[in-house]
Specification:
- The structure holds two protein chains of two kinds.
- Chain A is an all-alpha fold.
- Chain A has helices spanning 10-40, 44-58, 62-76, 86-114, 119-127, 132-147, 149-162, 174-184, 188-217.
- Chain A contains nine helices and no strands.
- Helices cover 79% and strands 0% of the residues of chain B.
- In chain B, helix 11 (281-289) runs antiparallel to helix 12.
- Chain B is flat and about 75 Å long.
- Classes of the chains: A mainly alpha, B mainly alpha.
- Chain B: Belongs to the binding-protein-dependent transport system permease family.
- Chain B: It comes from Streptomyces cathayae.
- Chain B: It is a multi-pass membrane protein.
Chain lengths: 221, 304
């Protein structure tokens, strides 16, 4: 019944999914934190940029962003992110698209975490003579990170599911393999079940693990 | 809330802010300059590539409007089918009977954990193999199937969170005047929960509209994004121009929905007639993740 699976690189496809998710998660955590810092900072221009970025990016379909990186950046403008072969180019473009999109959500998750820090703490820190960078970096952000583990985990799970959009530009991840298998084999329900279970295995433990971490590190107030 | 992090600024801070502003502006201008000059080098800023959108109605009436109609059609169908399904499963998850509650919970959590694209691909093959739906209609059916399966389960969580966000006294009061469980749900809890859920449902529409684009890119569903593709072929490969116009349309449509949702949320929070329970856009982001433990905290998250 499962014989045909030997003809396909199922684990390889899910490995690509995991790689897409991990690389994009790291990238969007960095860029999202910078965006959040801009949005709560004292420089009006940077605040405006952060707000505009989040509002614009959150309202564009991820599919459009990823197609933009492929059709626009790579094929029209010839920007290939330092890769030569088709496969690597599309993989990197997909990671770039996922980072650009996901960081808007990371920024919002962090900002909601920043809002949970009591005003008095920032006031006390300022009264001690700390600068904005010190208040944000040493007092507010560490607590904000701890209280936004839950929302950040939600962003990560959404990101794992969103990696399937990379199929739109031909990255050989799980959804593309599913499409290929369905076209070649007459085993619709079985194939779908295998892919679905694969995603459940990726997302469910992630949710449970970060739910546990979130409870453990949350600042008790 | 940003002002909690810094004081009213003195002369030194003001000077420093000006420095930051200038540096940021310079970096941004450099990036913009690089983008524009790259576009220019590749001839992407030529007027003939952008002209069709400004000087004639043809691209709008031939490509964009039909695409937009299909996007809206798929989104509308999905939400119309998904809402009652979601309400059913949301209420089922709150049932006192484990044999209703547990299966409903498993179904909802399962479909929330699976990417929409996987559900759409499944739908396409399902209609091709087991039904007589013509191959022209199949992409629409598949897109709607995928969106319904996923969004019904998210809407189920919204309904559940909406009902849980009501003060406990509502159910107790209904029981006290002798209503049965089903009457209390139908006559007292659900009508109030619907009000509380409205902003969250509108926010979920944004997710649905964005996900229709998957149908265009992977399933040959002729929606707005797919229209950009055929359009750029017709107007001399103006990929960047076509995608930009389509992105702006998506942003405008979704921004209108987002703004409407937050206006609705603010209005409901102000109004004295409701119980004060409101589910906002932030809750929707959490629910869309499909995390098992995520839904519990949402129940109280929305109360003002």
């Amino acid at each position: 019944m499962f014989d045909f699976l030997e003809d396909y690189d199922l684990l390889g496809a899910f490995w690509t999914t995991v790689q897409l998710a991990v690389l994009s998660a790291v990238g969007s955590l960095v860029w999202g934190t910078l965006l959040a810092a801009m949005r709560v900072g004292p420089v009006p221009l940077m605040r405006g940029f952060g707000t505009a970025y989040v509002n614009i990016v959150r309202n564009i379909p991820l599919t459009v962003i990823i197609l933009f990186t492929s059709l626009g950046l790579s094929q029209t403008l010839g920007i290939n992110l330092g890769a030569d072969d088709f496969e690597t180019i599309n993989f990197r473009l997909a990671v770039l698209g996922l980072i650009l999109y996901t960081s808007a959500f990371v920024c919002e998750a962090l900002r909601s975490g920043i809002n949970t820090v009591p005003v008095g703490q920032a006031e006390a820190a300022r009264a001690l003579g700390l600068s904005f960078n010190q208040v944000l970096g040493q007092v507010v952000l560490p607590q904000a990170f701890r209280s936004s583990v839950g929302p950040l985990a939600n962003v990560l799970i959404a990101l794992i599911k969103n990696t399937t959009v990379a199929a739109a530009i031909g990255v050989a991840e799980a959804a593309l393999l599913m499409k290929e298998m369905i076209e070649n084999e007459a085993q619709l329900l079985l194939i779908s079940a295998v892919i679905a279970v694969g995603f459940v295995i990726l997302t469910l433990p992630t949710g449970l693990f970060f739910g546990w971490v979130g409870k453990k590190v949350a600042v008790k107030r | 809330m940003s002002s909690i992090l810094y004081d009213a600024q003195g002369p030194r801070a003001k000077r420093r802010n000006i420095v930051f502003t200038v540096v940021f502006l310079a970096a941004f201008a450099a990036l913009l300059w690089w983008v524009l000059s790259t576009l220019n080098d590749k001839g992407q800023l030529e007027w003939f590539l952008w002209k069709p959108f400004f000087t004639s109605g043809e691209p709008w009436s031939t490509y964009i409007w039909p695409g937009l109609q299909n996007t809206l059609k798929a989104a509308a169908l999905s939400v119309i089918i998904a809402l009652p399904l979601g309400a059913l499963f949301g209420i089922a998850r709150l049932s006192d009977h484990a044999w209703i509650r547990v299966p409903a919970g498993i179904v909802v959590e399962f479909f929330r954990a699976i990417p929409v694209l996987v559900l759409m691909i499944f739908g396409l093959a399902l209609f091709a193999e087991y039904t007589s739906v013509s191959s022209d209609d199949r992409p629409l059916y598949a897109v709607v199937t995928g969106l319904v399966l996923y969004n019904a389960s998210v809407l189920a969580e919204i309904v559940r969170a909406g009902i849980l966000s009501l003060p406990k006294g509502q159910a107790e009061g209904a029981m006290a005047i002798g209503l049965r469980k089903n009457q209390a749900m139908r006559l007292v809890l659900l009508p109030q929960a619907v009000t509380a859920m409205l902003p969250a449902i509108v926010s979920q529409l944004v997710v649905i509209v964005k996900d229709t684009a998957l149908g265009g890119a992977v399933l040959t569903f002729p929606e707005l994004l797919a229209a950009a593709n055929t359009m750029s072929g017709y107007y001399g490969a103006n990929v960047i121009a076509s995608l930009t116009v389509v992105s702006v349309l998506f942003i405008a449509l979704n921004f209108a929905l987002t703004s409407f949702a937050s206006w609705l949320e603010a209005r409901l929070r102000r109004s004295k007639r409701s119980t004060g329970a409101v589910l906002g856009a932030d809750d929707v982001d959490d629910l869309n993740a499909g995390e098992v433990g995520g839904a519990q905290k949402t129940g109280t998250g929305g109360t003002a």
